[in-house]
## 1
Amino acid sequence: MTKALFLVDSYLKETPAKVISVKDGKYVTLDQTIFFPKGGGQPHDTGKLIKGKEVYNVVFVGKFSGEISHEVDQEGLKKGDEVYCVLNWDRRYKLMRSHTAAHVLASLINKGTGALITGNQLEENHVRFDFSLEKFDRELLEK
């Protein structure tokens, strides 16, 4: 089972790791990871896995059957390889800030209107929320 370091320290930007398995040449499971998998309305992290002078870009991270899988842009990693994980920190930090701001906004709308969140989508450059408003009242929302 992959140790999810992002749950312990969301500001961790780099860490060594060991390849536990590789599926179809480019789906990599590590013994520990700083990469957040897509889920709960939040996008996955990106970054790179470095082995010596070889760089494998992490293009997708997901959780499948309880395991965190890192999709890399090329084949070459093997079980037992030692890698160095480097997070795309600028993207992660932007998503962290958006996530926090989204919670603040949702709380204000809930307190002001009683509306609940019925859906959401957090992306690197935008955030979308759906609320259970009985009717749209621009004046109330602006207030």
Note: Residues 93-142 form one domain.
## 2
Amino acid sequence: MTYQEVLSRGFTLRGMVHRPQSVPPGIRLPAVVLCHGFTGTRVESHRLLVKAANALVEAGIVAVRFDFAGSGESDGEFVDMTPETEVQDAMNILQWLGAQSGVDRSKLGMIGLSLGGLVTACAASRTKLPAAIALWAATANMGQRMNERATPEMTAQLQEKGYVDSRGNMVGRGFYESALQIKPLQEARQYAGKVLIVHGTEDQSVPVSEADEYAGAFAKCFPQLHIIQGADHTFNSQVWEADVIGTTVEFMRQILC
């Protein structure tokens, strides 16, 4: 595992690259980018992305997990982050990864959790680079959900200050505007690779019905839809964690290796 910095939109994105140690550096391997969720980092809850990266390495796949601009250790401010800026960051990471000497550009993949799932759907559809993508508890209608959950106090704060204080994270006006403008389900129809969609039945943040919406949008890809009974938004149990990671790594291994 090595520390890595990548430039995106004038910001330095910081992350980690996991590569099988037994493989010489010059050998080109499949590689997967992991995208964290809203207010998350490249580690995520119960080290979910770290564990996923390690499992990918065991399958012979390079794994890259990074912080979006404004999150974790990357440059930028959270208040300036939007779904669209994260899509741009993910696209830049993909381009960087595909140019590495030890990576097979024809065998790239992406995994995205929550907002990272929306980002994955859009970045993959726009670049056409990933041969396979996995969406974990991906949000399809983020702008709509945020509007439904907005309180009068939040609306007033947004109008007065230009941001909403969400548990210490300042969510800017631009984020709300971008969330309403971006159309991941429409963009998904342009993707032609392989797709895995994983969602928990007890997800209180993103309804499991949105997994069905993604499945419909990716219909021409004949997506695999994997529903985990009882699982919450970030798969917070050993059983759910093992299920989402195991299912995803096997999917990536079959497509990329």
Note: DSSP finds nine helices and ten strands in the chain.
